[in-house]
User: Fold this.
Amino acid sequence: MENGTLLAVEDLHTWFEVRKWGFVHVGYVRAVDGVTFSLDQGEAVTVVGESGCGKSTLARTILGLYPPTKGEVRFLGKPIKAWGRRYHSMLGYVQQDPYGALPPFMNLRRILLEPMVINRIGTKREREERIRQVLEEVKLTPVEDFLGKFPHMLSGGQQQRAVIARSMVLNPKMIVADEPVSMLDASVRVEILQLLQGIQQAHNLGVIYITHDLSTVRYFSERIFVMYAAKIVEKAPVKELLGNPLHPYTKALLAAIPDPDPENAKVFKEVPPGEPPSLLRPPTGCRFHPRCPHKIEGLCDREVPPEFEPVPGHFVSCWLYR
Amino acid sequence: MRTATETLLKVEDLKLYFRTTKGVVQAVDGVSFEVGKARSVVVVGESGCGKSSLAKAILRLLPRNVHTYSGHIYMDGVDLMSLSDEEFRRNVRWVKISYVAQGAMNSLNPVIKVGEQVAEALLIHTDGVTRREALERVQEVFRFVGVPLDFIDRYAFELSGGMRQRVVIAMALITHPPLIILDEPTSALDVLTQANIMNSLKRIKKEMKVAYFLITHDIATSSELAEDAIVMYAGQIVEMGEAGHFYLTPKHPYSEMLMASVPTLREDKELRFIPGQPPSLINPPTGCRFAPRCPKRFSMCDSEPPMVELADGRKVKCHLYG
Assistant:
């Protein structure tokens, strides 16, 4: 393991068993099905995919909230099991719904104190000091005004700042942000993304940013992973992926995203037919083949495409690039 | 904002205030605009600016705590405000204006087949239609919105989000109303599904000559449908005019900043956000409501700005153009 690697995900599978009447085994929902990547210290990556593609499950498996069915997550060279409880204090988690993530009966001071109490960190004075620091860092200032506030007294943007502050309290090495801005207004989104980026750079954090919104990734990360039906189908640096998408799914996804342009109203978009497959019984071969305009009969529907590297640093799982 | 088309709906000085324990909320405060025949008008604004309340005010779908409901809504020469509730229900709702409410796709009845639910809308709002005729019409509209015909006998939980949204749109279309109000019709859907539904809405508009009143906070997606645009801020319209003008050269400082906060996929622009929060609608600032956040404010902004008509036909509520 090289020195700079923060997180290594190796052939990760997270399957959920489905039962009928509580005991008859029906099958597995393969929410994450063979995902491999690594993240360097201080690197930000984006995982992009549609709802139900397994991106949140991937996040939660990395966070140690779901046990992997197969494969491994290594953090700083050690499997997460070996870290035990300490693992969670090295990770921050920013949830999608800030209001749901904050206990409604605690004020901000209590919310931010909690992680330190649980991990028995610091004296009373040091804890107070730390709370002030993080609140200033997320720009919930003047701090005095916010300490006593309860989540419902904050706006959506402020709630998300509070969630970010909480994830930062223990000085984590990595932050997993699962759709941190999808519930916020457009005008606030940018603010929160810039804040996250500022924190990431200031503390040299690893960040996994999970989103369905490709238009925000340009402003955030260095690499993008595109996920479709529980697998990563394309990995590339942001500029490369946006400028030269290779996988037919990525191409369709990019084409479907509108920019605010009045010309949009005059044209119809090319959209692949159908919907993402059920993860209970995913298609054989390439999972995108039933919707793919370029599928090769006899190959795409039979063999799972391995990862090809047609452009250095740009990986794609598609037979077109064999 | 009017071009050569005929006027379909004309709203004058519409007000909708709610009574709450904290005071009177001025959700819609003196809004005037027109919708042309077979035009599509989008209303954009941050959450809490009164967009959805405007839709409900037009449809007279009011909660119990209404404080003020006044103004004029003209359609076909009749002031809808002068109708009794029963006349309104009988002659306007679903006959002249139908409505796709926000999250309507999650409000389908789980124990009635979706085909029956769509037929019900026709049975209730049209006299002398038999059940069989209604079900035939359901087939017609399902074909139109792109729902496979065998879905008629399915229940809502058997359909994906995109299909449920199509069913709800079919329900709005079945009576052939000249105007459909769509409140965030695609905000909960994935990009590909969203693009698909936008394609369908464009096709429906072209073939059925229906006018849309589209309410959304997603500016990029709104451009898919917009011919005219209305920008709302704190219960008031701050800019309206042809969509092309708004997307390319917004004039009101709020519209300008709103556009600057929209991330774009294809263009590497620097994003800005709007500092501060929208004002409370209980005691909105006197004068221009955007003034506290506006970088261009000057001495006159303490007084309420008039709606100024510019040379290109659009209207802007700002002293800069007075």
About this structure: Chain B has a mean pLDDT of 91. Residues 111 and 236 of chain B are 40 Å apart (CA to CA). The longest strand of chain B covers residues 7-20.
